[in-house]
């Protein structure tokens, strides 16, 4: 990891394949700070998120696009439906008024 490299935006996140794309940065940060670290970037499956929390020093995870696609995603997971988030990481939500999911706007 180049510690001065600027991370590029990511799209096309696949559950179990390329989630948590800033993990290296968060783990490196956790080694030099004495404060909770929040990892953002590509969380799509509850399994991968649980693994991160249980196997690293990272205390918190942040999500954005999956919650734009499925505002009740966390409730769905709590109720036992642990399929990965429906978000396909197309980034189109950032180009709509109010950051709406284009798939939801199309009734999909």
Can you describe what's shown?
By secondary structure, the chain is mostly helical. It is 31% helix and 6% strand. A two-stranded parallel ribbon has the order 1-2. Strand 1 (38-40), helix 2 (46-55) and strand 2 form a beta-alpha-beta unit. The protein is globular.
Instruction: Tell the overall outline.
Output: globular
* Approximate helicity band: 25-40%
Strand-residue fraction? 5-15%
**Structural class computed from helices and strand pairing:** mainly alpha
Which tags fit this structure?
108 residues; mainly alpha; two-stranded parallel sheet; globular
Q: Would you spell out the secondary-structure blueprint of this structure?
A:
Blueprint: H1 23-30, E1 38-40, H2 46-55, E2 60-62, H3 65-69, H4 73-78, H5 102-105
Parallel strand pairs: 1-2
Concise description?
The protein is built from 5 helices and 2 strands. It is mainly alpha-helical and 108 residues long.
